[in-house]
Amino acid sequence: MYPLTFFSSLFGIEKDNHELCLTQYKSVTAHAPLVYMSLMLAVIGLAYVNMNNASAAVTIVMPLLLVLVDLIAFHSFMIQRDLNLSSYRSSVVRRLHVTVWSALALGVIHGGWVIILLAQGDAATQNLTVIIFSLSSLGAAICLLQLPVAAIALSVSAMSPLSLFLWFSGEPGHQISALAIAISTAVGAFAINRYGKDYSRMVMKQREVGAKKSEAEQISRLNRIMAHQDSLTGLANRRAFLSNINAQVADAQKGLMDGLSVGILDLDGFKLVNDVYGHPAGDRLLKSAGRRLTDLFYSRVFVARLGGDEFGIAVSGKRSQEELRALGERICSAMRVPFDLDGRSVHLGGSVGFARWTEVGDTAEILFERADYALYHTKESSRGAVTIFNDQHAARLREITVVDRQLHDADFDKEMSLMFQPIVSLGQQKTVGLEVLARWNSPALGIVTPDVFICSAERLGIINRLTASLLEKALRDAETWPDDLFMSFNLSMQDITSTAAVLKLVSIINSSGFDPKRITLEVPETAVMNNYERALDSLTLLKNLGVNIALDDFGTGYSSLAYVRTLPLDKLKLDRSFVVDLVRDAAARAVAGSMIEMCRSLNVDCIVEGVETGEQVRILNKLGCEIIQGYYCSRPLSAHDARAFVRSERQKKQAG
Ligand code: C2E
Ligand code: CA
Q1: Based on the structure, what is the number of domains in the chain?
Q2: Which of 149, 198, 220, 416 is most deeply buried (CB count within 10 A of its CB)?
Q3: Annotated catalytic residue 309
């Protein structure tokens, strides 16, 4: 056993409990002046009281020496008290030991001197000496209560010689005093010991409370950070972004800032990365995209991740349209640089929408909504580019609000009607199917095209109800068609992302009695891309019913071949954007040709949409296209006209 450990255990000093030792040492240091003062006063008082009875050596020389010892001990104690003890555990313990030894020594020295005094004094001074010394020793011991072993050492070492002397004096009075002193010293030592234990428990409790408090503080600090930080990229999150633009708008309203622009960046093709390379790879890509974005700006631009593959950009200060566009283009170019995913180079793009703070009435919510609309506009019209919210967009946004309000209260059965557009086989030279296209005859707005009201129904969350109503209507009409015509019906994204909605479609088809093999359900490519796994489940469920599945507007949603192959598809509808340049652009012809070839290799029917001219038909024929749809064959027709169209076509064919 090391000496330090031995003495610590002997003295009841909990040397492994640094907090307790430190607290004890601080308390002892604080009370040390009182201990020494009480001892020195006792020495002076006792010397004075015994002046007439005892020799000069005992009442002058010895007291002077004792006071000198007290002063030296006090001084050496005090010069060390300011040293930094918190980090030196062993030095604190050592000093506590020194304190205990000092208390013991002081008790012995002072007690010894008092015995000499008692030996030379008369009965009256002896009584006074016992009282003065007992009280001052008790006072000194009380000052050392926080270090019980020192308090006990002082009182026992000072009182024991005294009570022994009185006991062995042989006088009954003195012997009673000796017993009283011995008993009260023992009881005092016991009480001090108990107090010491309670004290150390209290210090430990305080330490626990302190630790819990600091843990709670740390947790609440972490919560505060997490509430405002995106855990994946380390950027500010949506909440922090909104509160930042709120604060900036408030400054702009007060004239403290001369402008603010809010931008939203959406990564084009990110969903595909998640589906093809997995979510961990997608996460890594989002981190790099976040870094690229922050690296582009130095100051006055606040960047956040809003969620998914969307980032927010708040640009402080007045910026012209040109400056903002240039900034947006820098962002888009940065996102076009291939990303490195474990050695694979992944190509993405970025679409940006910006809205500028223009009027005092503009709130942060309005700005954000406009930026979102501008982004939506970019995604719709020119992916990978920048759109800055303008007056036309504002007018369009107002229209949307009106449409939303009217559609919300619309009676679908009464106000919705259907048009039918022929789908024609070039090989058979006849209409093989009819695509159902919805129209809304709103009492307030007149005829509204599906481009407008389908989006509105999706926004309002009533698309499933609308689809169900349209499908029932379409199936009723299709009952009257020739048996060899199929019905092609459009679904929206939300129709295939909810199981309840898919089951509703299944039940409508089942109860209609219409042959499911004569139904083709068209799902937009973007709908599948946005939620591939759910879409796959839904399409598989529908496919098991016997219906055909067509991927609509193919070529607009960043699909890859690998991805398309895994879907249970029967048909691909090539978007009309592939047809537009067919006549004058050889590259467009090559792309359309390879798409048609791809369908063949995947063993799915290829339907080319938006065919308007005979020249286009001639080229498509050459490229091996089998089925077309478009104004060249027929515009969308009413139910009655569609039936007449098919009938007359067949009559002509029979006649020919
Ligand atoms: P879509 O599925 O691509 O339908 C074809 C759209 O292109 C139709 O517009 C049609 O009128 C138009 N079109 C057909 N041939 C040509 C052509 O040669 N040239 C040009 N420029 N356009 C042509 P419509 O009827 O306005 O429908 C627009 C979109 O609305 C549809 O695009 C479809 O995605 C959606 N939609 C229509 N009806 C429904 C429906 O009942 N439910 C859902 N969810 N969506 C529908
Ligand atoms: Ca369609």
Answers
A1: 3
A2: 149
A3: yes
| Residue 58, in any domain of the structure | yes
| Residue 552 CA to ligand 2 centre (angstroms) | 5
Q: CA-to-CA distance for 54 and 30, rounded, in angstroms?
A: 36
* 630: nearest Cα among 423, 420, 419, 418: 423
Q: Give distance in angstroms: CA of 457 to centre of ligand 1.
A: 16
Detail the DSSP E strand segments found in 184-318.
260-268, 301-307, 310-316
CB-side exposure of 637: number of CA atoms within 13 Å?
18
Whether residues 158 and 108 fall in one domain: yes
C-alpha–C-alpha distance, residues 435 and 420, integer Å: 5
Type of residue numbered 403: V
Amino acid making up residue 310: E
In a domain, 615, yes or no: yes
- Which mutation among 416, 423, 437 tests ligand 1's pocket best, with the greatest number of atoms within 8 A of CB? 437
Burial class (CB in 10 A: 0-12, 13-18, 19+), 455: middle
Name 414's Cβ contacts closer than 8 Å, sequence gap at least 6: none
Choosing from 70, 230, 268, 309, the catalytic residue is 309
Q: How long, in residues, is the chain? A: 656
Query: Which is it for strands 260-268 and 349-356: parallel, antiparallel or unpaired?
Result: antiparallel
From 335, 370, 389, give the residue that closes a domain. 389
Residue nearest to atom 4 of ligand 1 (CA): 437
pLDDT in tens, 396-454: 888 888 999 999 999 999 999 999 999 999 999 999 999 999 999 999 999 999 999 99
More confident residue, 499 or 10: 499
Residue 265 bridge partners (DSSP): 311, 352
CATH number of the structural domain spanning residue 451: 3.20.20.450
- 90 CB contacts (<8 Å, ≥6 apart)? 4
Residues 114 and 258 in one domain: no
Residue type, 400: I
Q: Which residues span the domain enclosing 163?
A: 2-212
Query: Side chain identity at 219, as an amino acid letter?
Result: I
Q: What is the DSSP string of 115-173?
A: HHHHHHS-HHHHHHHHHHHHHHHHHHHHHTTTSHHHHHHHHHHHHHHHHHHHHHT--HH
Alpha helices, H only, 546-633: 561-565, 577-580, 586-602, 614-622
Q: Is the CB of residue 52 below 6 angstroms from any atom belonging to ligand 1?
A: no
For the chain, give the percent of residues with pLDDT over 90. 52
189 within domain boundaries: yes
Cα–Cα distance for residue pair 447/437, rounded to 1 Å: 13
Residue 612 near ligand 1, beta carbon < 6 Å = yes
